[in-house]
Amino acid sequence: MDLKELLGEELYQQVIEKAGDKHKLAVVSDGNWIPKDKFDDKLDEIKNLKTEITTRDTQLDELKKVDPEALQQKINNLQEENNNTKTEYEGKLQKQTFDYALKDALTGAKVRNPKAAKALLDLESIKLDGDKLLGLDAQLNTIKESDPYLFESEEAPPPPNSPQIVPPGNPNGGSNQGPSDPFAEKLAKYN
Question: Domain tally for the chain?
């Protein structure tokens, strides 16, 4: 039963006149009246929701088209690339640490030219264990014996207040470099 049947035609017309213009009101399915702008807002909201649902359905259909095997292969490739990059980086870092430790060890061993000494070393047999180089000392001892010029001499410097011993003899080397008599020169002028 709607409002018109309950009120009758005459009373219904009076209510419509009092409520306002038909264009400003909208009838809801249960016979109630609401402002038309609220009705239009709700109608727009329903249209927007339907559009969103359609968009999401389309997105879901697109996702269903994705090949899971190809996607898994892509993931595996990226993981492999990341592992290779990590391994390469760790290798470079280990080499750099080894090089610095070797340079410090050669400097500590008083090597004059670390580059030349490094060329004589068998680097494959030297291993870095923490901050210690295993196998280096034996090779350095061998190089010291075969090429001692690569190392600074280990002779101790003289004590600071020790006297210097000079060999005996004439500091001029025994040659007669000038007159021994200072007056002989003056006499030679008058002769």
Answer: 2
Give the Cβ contact number of residue 16 at 10 Å: 16
Beta bridge partners of 33: 27
In a domain, 25, yes or no: yes
Model pLDDT for residues 39-55, shown as the tens digit of each residue: 888 899 999 999 999 99
Contacts of 133 (CB under 8 A, 6+ apart): 98, 101, 102, 105, 126, 127
Q: Global pTM? A: 0.44
Q: How far is CA 166 from the centre of its chain?
A: 63
What does the alpha-carbon distance between residue 66 and residue 106 come to, in Å, rounded to a whole number?
A: 60
In a domain, 190, yes or no: no
Q: Which domain holds residue 129?
A: 92-150
Domain membership of residue 44 (yes or no) is yes
